[in-house]
Amino acid sequence: MSAVESRIAELGLTLPEVVPPLAAYQPAVRSGVYVYTSGQLPMVNGKLPVTGKVGAEVTAEEAKDLARTCALNALAAVKSVTGDLDRIARVVKVVGFVASAADFTGQPGVVNGASELLGEVLGDRGVHARSAVGVAVLPLDAPVEVEIQVELAEA
Q: pLDDT for 40-66, tens place per residue?
């Protein structure tokens, strides 16, 4: 088990299987020293634990926890193309999409769930640039979706 996966286990989490694509794309693609993930939904065992808009059917705190799940799913996607999460030199960018009620403006707090998980797992290597975007709807009526870009250490 890699050091990163050991850290995930120390946090009481499990690196999930890669979420199968919902359409014509790959969960992650490597280009040179970078890995780009597709948007990851907060799928757990093949299902969304909750659906709806944040600020309406879903609370900001629930959505923040779902963003953590998205980040964990993104790490699984990275591992699927690198074979080893210890190869991550740093997380470069995180983009979080939050399906928001019309008056909800707490997108940064929701996406903090993903950012904080990456920091807990990767330490300084998890510090990144970020965007948190409110949207009208996400696939499968998911409340949140997260994609990440990572730089790999030279092999």
A: 999 999 999 999 999 999 999 999 999
> Cβ of 134: how many Cβ atoms within 10 Å?
19
Query: In sequence order, what are the residues at sequence separation of 6 or more whose Cβ sits closer than 8 angstroms to the Cβ of residue 30?
Result: 81, 82, 152
Measure the CA–CA gap between 18 and 77, rounded to whole angstroms: 6
- Model pTM score: 0.97
State which amino acid sits at residue 67.
Answer: A
Look at the block and give the residue holding tokens 């065992």.
Answer: 45
To the nearest whole number, what is the mean pLDDT of the chain? 96
Among the listed residues 42, 150, 54, the one whose alpha carbon sits nearest the alpha carbon of residue 109: 54
| Tokens representing residue 106 in the block | 């707490």
| Residues 6+ away with beta carbon under 8 Å from 36 | 28, 29, 147, 149
Residue 2 has phi, psi (to 5 degrees) of -70, 165
Measure CA 28 to chain center. Answer: 12
Which tokens belong to 38? 């597709």
Taking the C-alpha atoms of 69, 115, 129 and 102 in order, what is their torsion angle to the nearest 10 degrees? Answer: 70
